[in-house]
Each structure stands twice: as C-alpha cells, then as structure tokens.
Amino acid sequence: MTDNGRESLVIIPARLAATRLPDKPLATIAGAPMIVHVWRRAVEADVGPVIVACADRAIAEAVEAAGGEAVMTDPGLPSGSDRVHAAAAIRDPDGRYAAVVNLQGDLPAIDPALIRASLIPLRDPAVDIATLVVPTADPGERDNPNVVKAVMSLADGAAAGPTAGPTVGRALYFTRAAAPSGAGPVWHHIGIYAWRRPALDRFVALPPSPLEKREKLEQLRALEAGMRIDAAVADGVPFGVDTPEDLARARALLEQEA
Predict the structure, then answer these.
(1) Half-sphere CA count of 68, side-chain side, radius 13 A
(2) Which region, left, alpha or beta, applies to residue 67 given φ > 0 means left and ψ of -120 to 50 means alpha?
(3) How far apart are CA 181 and CA 248, in angstroms?
(4) How far apart are CA 176 and CA 184, in angstroms?
C-alpha cells in the first residue's frame, strides 16, 4: 500500500437526520453548505477521488452544484461505515482502490494534512484499519465520556516528528473511560479511518459485538474480530460541528478565513 493517494478513495458519509442539529450537512458556512467545505478539504488532501455518500438527494444536489461527486445510498443503512461501504461498491465495484478513507462530514475546517496522515499506518501490510490519535493531559477530556480514548502501544512522550513523519502505534482498545491508568499520556481518538477494502468488507458483514454495544464504539467490533488497528499521532484535533454553538464557531472561523 502506498501513501501517494493513487490507490485510495475518500468517502464522506452524510445524511440529514440529526437530533442535535437537523439538516447539519446543508448548514451554510461562509457561503457554502458544510458538506461542501468538508469535500473541498478532502480534495485538497490530494490522496485520491473524493465522493460524498448521501442518504438524501438534497445533499447530493449541493455537492454536485459545487462540482463534487455524490453517490446515493440507502437511507436505512445503520452506520456511516455501512454507507461508506455501499458507496465504495457503487463507485468502485472492481476494487481498483485498495484503501477507503472514511471522513466525517461535520469537520468543515479539517486540515488536509490530517487526511493524508490517516493513511500512513497502512504502509504496514499487517494493518487492517488506520486512524489518528492526539495526546491529551486535559483532565476534562480524560474524564469526558464524549471524548473517545485509544489505549495505545506507544512509548510515553511519543509525538509527531517534523522530519520522520508521525509516530505510529497499535491501538489495543478504545473506551469512553479515562484509560489506561497510571502516569503517561491519554490518547484522544480522532474518528477518521482508512480501511483496506477487504477489512471494510469483513467489518460490515459482522454483527455488532458485545463490547461495541457496551461502549457504543463501532471500532471495537473490529478489534473483537481480531482485526488490527494502528494509529498515527497527529498534532491537533479537528474541530467538529455537533451543536448550534459549534456551528456558530465554525461560521466565525471560516468567515474569517474567507
């Protein structure tokens, strides 16, 4: 697997149904729908074609109006991973692209470098799924169940290197609790995934696992099935939009950049 993007697809799952912020993908930020901002950042990452996997025709129309590519998927699919898998099968039925990046559609200010970094762990052929982590010493994050923590096989003090590239370690577990115990970094998980195609195919065919249901973390299904997840250490957490307050912040940030 190379990291030059020629073997990768970036797929952004998007649907209008949301409890805290209805119609979130179409929320206008600096003159464009949020989903268009995410698509543009993914294109800037230059790791391969970018497709928005839509559950609603209105999202597809917004993406296409901006010059992007959209694929319609079944609105009844249970998760973003299932939507990404369905879109990959439609867009690339012959499996030409060896990896698929699942990029959340609520990250309108994401640094394209993070998207590129998400593919780095796949340089190791033993890795099934790649993702990103950031060290945190913030007690508020450590104890916040909404912040997912990765239990990593990484030495204390590991961080992104300016010349050698990001440090990569193996993820042993993901949890909403503050873990592991003892002195050392707590790893804030960034929910961007780069999947090998066979791993994605296998994952969506598996039933939800016991730990997945207990922690409400989909990636535990993969670990319980014996799949390997490695994570690259990033230098910052991308800003996500989940609430009206987040949306106001995103508007202020991107309107300032415009």
Answers:
(1) 28
(2) left
(3) 36
(4) 17
The CA-based angle 79-80-81, given to 5 degrees, is: 90
Query: Rounded to an integer, what distance in angstroms lies between the CA atom of residue 243 and that of residue 246?
Result: 5
Complete DSSP assignment for 116-183: HHTTGGGGSTT-SEEEEEEEE--HHHHT-TTS-EEEEE--TT---BTTTB--EEEEEEEESS--S-SS
The answer, yes or no, to whether residue 176 has pLDDT greater than 70, is yes
Confidence bin at 183 (pLDDT 50/70/90): confident
- Per the prediction, the chain carries an average pLDDT of 91
Report the distance separating Cα 240 and Cα 109, nearest Å. 8
C-alpha span between 54 and 105 (Å, rounded): 10
**Exposure on the CB side of residue 88, measured as CA atoms within 13 A:** 30
Q: Following CA atoms 15, 19, 21, 27 in sequence, which dihedral angle do they give, to the nearest 10 degrees?
A: 20
**Helix H or strand E segment including 86:** helix 80-91
Contacts of 68 (CB under 8 A, 6+ apart): 36, 39, 43, 50, 52
According to DSSP, residue 184 is labeled S
The answer to whether the CB of 237 falls within 8 A of the CB of 134 is yes
DSSP letter at 216? T
Distance of CA 179 to the CA centre of its chain: 21
Concatenated DSSP letters of 60-84? HHHHHHTT-EEEE--TT-SSHHHHH
Q: Is 26 exposed, middle or buried (0-12, 13-18, 19+ CB in 10 A)?
A: middle
pTM of this prediction? 0.92
